[in-house]
Write a structure and sequence with these properties.
By secondary structure, this protein is mainly alpha-helical. It folds into 2 domains: 446 residues, no CATH class; 78 residues, no CATH class. The chain has 19 helices and no strands. Helix 1 crosses helix 9. The protein is globular, with a radius of gyration of 23 Å.
């Protein structure tokens, strides 16, 4: 039976939602504990860590998954395990090097950004670079075996321990100053990584007998590759993926490098510039992670599905996967974007009740970034398509063009006093628009996909617009009685329910497609009864 991306995306998507909920539970109280100044320190250290982590772990696990999958399909299980073993050594080597750079270069890095007190937070997060790469090797191996569960479980445990330890340490150290509290929060990433590694090791031990059996009946690979050749293949596949994955963290570091300095040049004090940056990166940006994780799960699951279709020369199945993936991305992205735009201020006040002034100021950044979700969804999904089709450098180049545009937009707009930090958010949206447009052109060229305007944009867009009106009416209808937090939650729930019904009524999703999802047959029976009774 042919495997589409849907099942793998569902497993990773559910795990991703749980992870982001835990992440919100981390960042929201953290912002309330250490304020925008502390979040400024934390957000100075964290993007640099994410960039190094991306360089260390983003491309190699995908390369592992692809190489393991190819060898497993041939029955060469021993060679697949050899790929895993060599990649583990490679990841540990680059992880140790990046940890050394971050720890010993922390003072110089934060000095360059003009945020000297963030050095503690940067050093505290360093140990994560020693454990997360090891965990990434195991994740890549299991993904190559088309088993997404170990990745999902280890990610959830990693995030859970990060939240618990990070918040506990920030509460303990805040008495000594917000810079110490930010360092405690940063160390949570290391604690979480260690916990995740222990869990995925336990899962591996559980599967070890089955892995040994497969290795014992392994056939000889037609490749007959040396260790050096395997490592070279790993690196050659991973480098374009790593560059592409690094561009988003690079864009965050563009903000870090430009925004505060430009705000100071405009007339803000260093403290005011740090607080404004904290509102953008610490208050508004994390909210965007919720819808982003769903489309990122699509991208991860698309790579093997598209690669299999390309390998077998099945063009109709390839086109089906690509076109469906873009539709799913828009079905997710459009309502999230418009809903966040409409409820930006209520969301900020609900999430940061003890920082009302900063929350209100951050709402405009959230509204702008919210609209960007539409285009970010397309960028991530089509990147997965192009990587699966073997065109790894194409989305890299497209996102690089977007990053250059962001650099120009951010530099110019943040220098306008009344726009200030919102210029960085506008620059980010511009980058996503450019990258998605270029990716769509490339996807058409290399896969032959044709994106149906009605099914991809008009139908889910119409449903999302009506949903936005419902959300606005519900919120303002009950806000004076029930208060901001309850009203916001009710508005979101009402909007979600209305959108789900409208998507079916507008036939943006077919019954055949619903049946492919776990539990979908039950949904189709309900829909069929509803439509039959309404006639």
């Amino acid at each position: 039976m042919k495997k589409t991306f849907v099942k793998g995306a569902l497993v990773l998507g559910v795990a991703g939602i749980i992870i982001k909920l835990l992440g919100a539970f981390f960042r929201i109280p953290l912002a309330n504990i250490i304020g925008d100044t502390g979040m400024g320190y934390y957000q100075t250290a964290y993007p640099v860590y994410v960039l190094l982590l991306t360089l260390t772990t983003s491309g190699i696990p995908t390369a592992i998954a692809r190489m393991v999958s190819e060898r497993t399909a041939e029955g060469a299980h021993e060679e697949a395990f050899r790929v895993f073993r060599l990649s583990f050594v490679l990841l540990m080597t680059v992880g140790t090097l990046s940890a050394s750079v971050l720890f010993f270069g922390a003072d110089m890095i934060v000095g360059f950004f003009g945020a000297g007190k963030a050095a503690l937070a940067m050093k505290a997060i360093t140990p994560a670079l020693l454990v997360v790469p090891a965990m990434a090797a195991f994740r890549g191996y299991f993904q190559g075996l088309q088993n997404m569960t170990p990745t999902a479980v280890s990610q959830i445990v990693e995030q859970l321990f990060r939240v618990i330890s990070g918040l506990a340490l920030s509460v303990f150290f805040v008495r000594f100053g917000v810079e110490y509290a930010a360092a405690g929060a940063s160390f949570g990433a290391a604690a979480g990584g260690a916990a995740g590694l222990v869990v995925i090791l336990a899962i591996y031990m559980k599967h070890r007998s089955a892995i040994r059996h497969d290795r014992s009946v392994s056939v000889r690979s037609s490749r007959d590759e040396s260790a050096g050749r395997i490592l070279w293949t790993l690196v050659s596949i991973s480098i374009p993926i790593t560059i592409g994955a690094a561009i988003l963290p690079i864009m965050s570091n563009i903000d870090l490098a430009i925004v505060m300095n430009r705000l100071v040049d405009t007339g803000f004090s260093k403290a005011e510039a740090n607080a404004l940056y904290g509102q953008l990166a610490g208050f508004a940006a994390p909210v965007i992670n919720f819808p982003q994780v769903l489309t990122q799960s699509l991208a991860v699951s698309l790579v093997p599905a598209v690669a299999a279709a390309v390998k077998t020369g099945d063009r109709p199945f390839l086109k089906y996967n690509v076109e469906l993936s873009m539709r799913v991305a828009m079905i997710i992205g459009l309502p999230c974007a418009l809903g966040i735009f409409a409820l930006s201020k209520p969301i900020m006040l609900m999430l940061y009740p003890s920082q009302p002034e900063s929350a209100v100021n951050a709402a405009s950044c959230l509204a702008i970034l919210g609209i960007g979700i539409i285009f970010l969804s397309g960028v991530q999904t089509l990147t997965g398509v192009l990587q699966g089709a073997g065109k790894h450098m194409v989305p890299v180049g497209n996102l690089a063009v977007g990053a250059v545009a962001k650099l120009a937009f951010t530099y110019f707009l943040t220098g306008v006093p009344w726009i200030n930090v919102r210029g960085a958010a506008l620059g980010t949206v511009a980058a996503y628009i450019i990258a998605m447009t270029l990716n769509m052109r490339a996807a058409r060229k290399y896969t032959g996909a044709e994106f149906d305007i009605s099914m991809t944009w008009i139908r889910p867009g119409a449903a999302a617009l009506i949903m936005t009106g419902v959300v606005w009416l519900v919120y303002h209808g009950v806000n004076l009685v029930l208060g901001n937090a309850v009203s916001t939650i009710l508005a979101v729930l009402a909007g979600g329910a209305v959108y789900a019904v409208l998507i079916l009524l507008f036939k943006a999703v077919t019954l055949d497609e619903l049946e492919r999802v776990r539990g979908g047959k039950r949904i189709t029976r309900i829909v069929a009864k509803f439509t039959k009774s309404s006639k």
